[in-house]
């Protein structure tokens, strides 16, 4: 290998970061993708150009927006999931949105992020439109991530808090002091509530989900107008905790059938 050859591991990591960024439909501009990945724009452009050549990314000639390409779809279709998260979560989400008329969602832990794997829109006219299937959020940015942080072992949580600190700087409310205080409240109550911290006048309430082995792996949540969360907090908390327990049972049953 030549001395000035690029580090292949570094190049692969950058490509993975870009693809993860683009799984969130809000990251369509070069500047958004670069900011999400923590890369400069020229580096991000080079990575995108390679991914375009490989069919994993496409670029609209008029808007100059980037999208995941057809090759990603073909790869995804070839993946056999051990657990069908949507099948497991859907009954709980239908019950939550049916009872409370707001958006309910299931998010799974992936590295330092929570990934929305299913959601159900309620009948209430003001909806949490910032949530979408496949969207990613850094841990702590949202009630689901807060619930998962609080359920982690102490050593793991400390390591995660150190790593997410640079990622949450554009959310002024989410300081280290704020997150630690919020985590303590979650541990005391058994559920997470986050109000007006990410999106103005919107909030969420969530409960963590553990694997049959006891590891925290996901969360179920309701997202709604802040006042709708606060007015019904006891009822919402009881409901998300009940559905988190139901999902844990369904997950254990699914594991035994594998």
UniProtKB/TrEMBL annotation:
Every HTH iclR-type domain range: 9-70
Keyword Transcription: yes
Domain IclR-ED, residue spans: 71-258
PROSITE patterns according to UniProt: HTH_ICLR, ICLR_ED
GO BP terms: negative regulation of DNA-templated transcription
Database matches in SMART domains: HTH_ICLR
Signal sequence region: none
Molecular function terms, GO-annotated: DNA binding; DNA-binding transcription factor activity
Keywords: DNA-binding, Transcription, Transcription regulation
Domain of life: Bacteria
Coiled-coil annotated residue ranges, if any: none
Gene3D superfamilies to which the protein is assigned, alphabetical: 3.30.450.40, Winged helix-like DNA-binding domain superfamily/Winged helix DNA-binding domain
Pfam name, any one: IclR_C
Protein name: IclR family transcriptional regulator
């Amino acid at each position: 290998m030549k001395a000035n050859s690029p580090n292949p591991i570094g190049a692969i990591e950058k490509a993975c970061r870009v693809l993860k960024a683009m799984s969130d439909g809000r990251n369509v501009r070069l500047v958004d993708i670069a900011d999400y990945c923590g890369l400069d724009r020229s580096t991000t452009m080079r990575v995108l150009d390679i991914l375009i050549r490989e069919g994993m990314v496409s670029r609209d000639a008029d808007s100059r927006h980037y999208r995941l390409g057809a090759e990603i779809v073909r790869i995804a279709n070839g993946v056999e999931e051990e657990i069908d998260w949507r099948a497991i979560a859907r009954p709980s989400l239908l019950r939550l949105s049916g009872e409370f008329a707001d958006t309910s969602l299931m998010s799974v832990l992936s590295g330092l992020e929570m990934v929305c794997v299913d959601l159900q829109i309620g009948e209430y006219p003001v909806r949490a439109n910032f949530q979408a299937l496949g969207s990613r959020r850094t841990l702590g940015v949202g009630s689901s991530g807060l619930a998962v942080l609080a359920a982690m072992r102490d050593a793991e949580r400390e390591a995660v808090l150190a790593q997410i600190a640079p990622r949450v700087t554009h959310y002024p409310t989410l300081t280290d002091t704020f997150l630690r205080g919020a985590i303590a409240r979650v541990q005391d109550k058994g559920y997470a509530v986050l109000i007006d911290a990410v999106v103005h006048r919107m909030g969420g309430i969530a409960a963590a989900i553990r694997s049959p082995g006891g590891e925290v792996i996901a969360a179920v949540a309701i997202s709604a107008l802040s006042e709708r969360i606060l007015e019904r907090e006891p009822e919402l908390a009881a409901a998300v905790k009940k559905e988190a327990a139901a999902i844990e049972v369904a997950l254990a049953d699914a594991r035994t059938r594998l």
